[in-house]
Design brief:
The structure holds 2 protein chains of 2 kinds.
Chain A (H helix, E strand, L loop, with lengths): L1 E10 L2 E8 L8 E6 L5 H13 L15 H6 L5 E12 L2 E12 L12 E7 L2 E4 L3 H8 L2 H4 L3 E3 L12 H11 L3 H24 L2 H47 L4 H35 L6 H17 L8 H10 L13 H12 L2 H58 L4 H47 L5 H46 L4 E5 L5 E6 L5 E3 L4 H25 L11 E4 L7 H14 L3 E5 L7 H6 L3 E11 L7 E5 L2 E8 L5 E7 L2
Parallel strand pairs in A: 3-13, 3-14, 8-12, 12-13, 14-16
Antiparallel strand pairs in A: 1-2, 1-4, 4-5, 5-6, 6-7, 9-10, 10-11, 14-17, 15-16
Helix pairs in contact in A: 6-7, 6-14, 7-8, 7-13, 8-12, 9-12, 10-11, 14-15
Chain B lengths: L4 E2 L2 E2 H6 L3 H16 L7 H15 L2
Antiparallel strand pairs in B: 1-2
The chains are: A alpha/beta, B mainly alpha.
């Protein structure tokens, strides 16, 4: 979805019909709009969401006053006032025109929020037509719940990285990165299997019916276990959040704060040591599993080498065919198969060919191969021993680190408990209770995981039995074939979902880091947890990593990095699939792009903006957009404009803004009417 | 399809392991589900559409 133009008619302070171009060209993906406080930047952002989804943000005051006040007041009772927003955009090679319009009859003094439906036209391959179900089509182009990642207020963007938003954000990202369709398929396919199963049961005989019944029972149990697992995971997420809150409160407490900070660090290090230990344990097991046999072939390889060397020396190594033996056949005039080997016969020529091929060259080559292999085995044994020793040392270090950090944690816990402050004791007791619940839930999660694996194995066995069952009826055979097909697609999709889920967090984490590093060069780095908690960390000279204290500006940059990472990843994911997914291209429309950033951060953000998304519509105030911000954005801007505020207020002074060496009106004080005007200025 | 990987198998590996009919059905299933993502229609309609796809792929 790439925006091309927006047109407003009597929308809030934008009186009359006004439009602004938004199209992008190569290397120039930014549309820059300047506007003062109250000029209409937030209104313009809302014009996008109102047109596409009929929604206004919560910070819009008097949403019932959508029509320009002046126009409404001057309209006589009984007259209809037009109100509309129209947006042109490109999507998947088609040109769309979205329009939300209403004609509002002025009947009494009370103003009500107007209701207006979306209309959508599409032009593709020279054909222009109106879209049936326009809101649904809009949802399929960019779902409303995802629009918050692309149309937002820079000052409020930090909400995205707050704890209460994690679960919601995770769900939205799943949708954006193509997981939701897989999840839905996995919800529908079992129902499809039941339908096909019913057909098979009806015509397939007693044996098939019996196996099917067993499969269905197991499937139900499996479904129940999966639901329980989801509930447990949700419960764990809730406990994690509660624990975070308690931890935060302890951290802020004057008596417990320093100990809690140390405990955070100890927990972090303990977690790291456990992860390292797991990693090294797996590496060790993998090595044993794939190359462990080498440990048992020491004498075998020596024996083979010795035996082969002896045979080689004696010239007794077996060859595919021995020359002496062939010579004796030729001399006897009779082949091993009984054929006479008379002079000049084809049979004799054939046997002579064998003789030419048999002999020392082949024996020598075989010996060299064998000798090489035996030597390689010996070398590999050495390598294996070395790698295993290294891993054993690392595991020992991990275990020591685990003991050390666990000991420190226990000491710190005892110290926190000793603090004679009621509030601390209450918080600590709550923390312990939550931790116990967490341990219990994790244990149950492990048990249910094993149960799920057992059900899956049982179902696989039963499916194989069903495949082998004797079925003579043609209808039943067809149903079985289809059922088998659906089962294999179901299994593949389940695996694909796991792959996509695992990758989503890993790839998004890497992308957020990449974008964050493009924006700021601080020694901080972001980290996206498996639960989509986005944190900022700092590596200290002694190697320890601790959460970094975040300013509002850093939170904003973090959120912006996250949004840009989502945008870039959505595009990459969409372009790498050939399953009919869309292009994954979305614009970013930002109000107050530089929000509460200080000057250094503004420059950093400005220099990165053009690289963040395929299209950026950036609205800034004159103060936010001065100096280096303009210099950074100018080369990437395709359109620049000013939202000129015409005001009757005498409290404001007229102001202008400089762009390209010329002055353009920014505030026109002492005007006859209060309204705002979208004015494009030359690049 | 993408080359995302989890553990040792990638999405492409999973798809490569399917026979041609299953590959075709997988593609159709994802297309159907994607086109229905934002519809409020019932599950029964989706299942019916999927069943038709199965009948077409495995007549």
């Amino acid at each position: 979805m790439i925006l091309r133009k927006i047109q407003l008619e009597n929308f809030r302070q934008f009186m009359g019909k006004q439009s602004f171009p938004l199209d992008v060209s190569s290397g120039r993906v930014v549309t820059l709009l300047f506007g003062g406080n109250g000029a209409g930047k937030t209104t313009l952002l809302n014009a996008f969401t109102w047109c596409l989804y009929g929604e206004l943000s919560h910070d819009i005051e008097h949403p019932e006053r959508l029509v320009t006040d002046l126009v409404w007041q001057s309209a006589p009772v009984g007259e209809e006032v037009p109100l509309s927003v129209e947006i042109e955009f490109e999507h998947e090679g088609a040109l769309y025109r979205a329009q939300r319009a209403a004609r509002i009859r002025k009947e009494d003094g009370v103003r009500r929020a107007p209701s207006a439906d979306l209309k959508l036209w599409v032009t593709q391959n020279g054909q222009n037509k109106i879209v049936d179900g326009p809101q649904q089509r809009m949802e399929s182009i960019l779902p409303q719940h995802l629009s918050r990642f692309f149309f937002f207020n820079g000052e409020r963007i930090e909400k995205l990285v707050r704890a209460e938003a994690y679960a919601e954000v995770k769900k939205d990202i799943s949708s954006l990165l193509g997981l939701e369709q897989v999840e839905r398929a996995l919800a529908h396919l079992p129902k499809l299997e039941r339908k096909l199963g019913a057909e098979l049961r009806k015509h397939g005989g007693a044996q098939a019916a019996d196996i099917l019944e067993q499969i269905e029972t197991k499937e139900e149990q499996l479904g129940q276990a999966r639901r329980e697992r989801e509930e447990l995971r949700d419960g764990i997420a809730a406990i994690t959040e509660e624990l975070g809150t308690v931890r935060e409160l302890l951290l802020q407490h004057s008596a417990a704060g320093p100990l809690q900070a140390q405990r955070d660090q100890a927990e972090e290090q303990l977690e790291k040591a456990r992860r390292d230990n797991e990693k090294h344990k797996h590496a060790y097991q993998h090595l044993i599993g794939t190359r462990g046999y080498l440990a048992f072939v020491k004498t075998l390889s020596q024996q083979v080498a010795g035996l082969a060397a002896g045979l080689h020396e004696r010239g007794s190594l077996p060859a595919p065919l021995k020359r002496d033996f062939v010579d004796s056949l030729i001399e006897d005039g009779r082949c091993i198969c009984g054929t006479e080997l008379g002079s000049g016969t084809a049979a004799l020529r054939h046997v002579e060919d064998w003789r030419a091929r048999a002999g020392l060259a082949e024996v020598e080559a075989a010996w060299q191969r064998l000798d090489g292999e035996v030597k390689r085995v010996a070398e590999s044994r050495g390598e294996l021993r070395h790698q295993l020793q290294e891993l054993a040392v690392e595991q020992q270090a991990d275990r020591e680190a685990i003991d050390r950090w666990a000991g420190q944690l226990a000491d710190l816990e005892a110290k926190v408990k000793d603090i004679p402050v009621e509030e601390v004791a209450r918080l600590e007791a709550k923390r312990e209770k939550l931790q116990a619940r967490m341990n219990d839930s994790n244990q149950k999660l492990g048990a249910i995981g094993s149960k799920i694996e057992d059900f899956q194995a049982d179902i696989a066995t039963l499916r194989n039995e069903l495949k082998a069952a004797e079925i003579n009826n043609a209808v039943a055979q067809k149903a079985r074939r289809r059922l088998d097909l659906v089962s294999s697609v179901d299994a593949a999709l389940r695996e694909i979902l796991e792959i996509r889920s695992a990758n989503m967090q890993v790839r998004l984490n890497a992308k957020v880091k990449e974008v964050f590093a493009q924006i700021t060069v601080k020694d901080h780095y972001p980290e996206l947890s498996e639960d989509f908690e986005l944190g900022l960390y700092q590596k200290h000279p002694d190697g320890t990593v601790l959460p970094a204290a975040k300013s509002t500006g850093e939170n904003q940059i973090l959120s912006l990095s996250f949004v840009a990472a989502v945008s870039q990843l959505a595009r990459e994911v969409a372009q790498s699939r050939d399953d009919g997914s869309d292009s994954g291209e979305y614009p970013i429309v930002m109000d107050a792009a530089f929000g509460s950033l200080d000057e250094n951060y503004r420059r950093d953000v400005a220099s990165a903006l053009a690289r963040l998304a395929p299209q950026m519509v950036v609205m800034v105030s004159k103060g936010q957009g001065k100096g280096e911000v303009i210099e950074q954005l100018r080369p990437h801007s395709n359109h620049v404009g000013v939202i000129v505020e015409h005001t009757t207020s005498t409290a404001k002074n007229s102001e202008s803004i400089e762009w390209g060496g010329y002055q353009y009106p920014y505030i026109e004080a002492g005007a006859e009417k209060d309204w705002s005007e979208l004015v494009e200025v030359p690049l | 399809m993408s080359d995302e990987t989890a553990g040792t198998r990638s999405e492409s590996d999973v798809i490569a392991g399917l026979d041609p009919q299953a590959k075709e059905l997988l593609k159709r299933v994802l297309q159907i589900e994607r086109s229905r993502l934002h519809l409020r229609a019932s599950d029964a309609e989706a299942v019916e559409e999927l069943l038709n796809a199965v009948r077409e792929v495995a007549p």
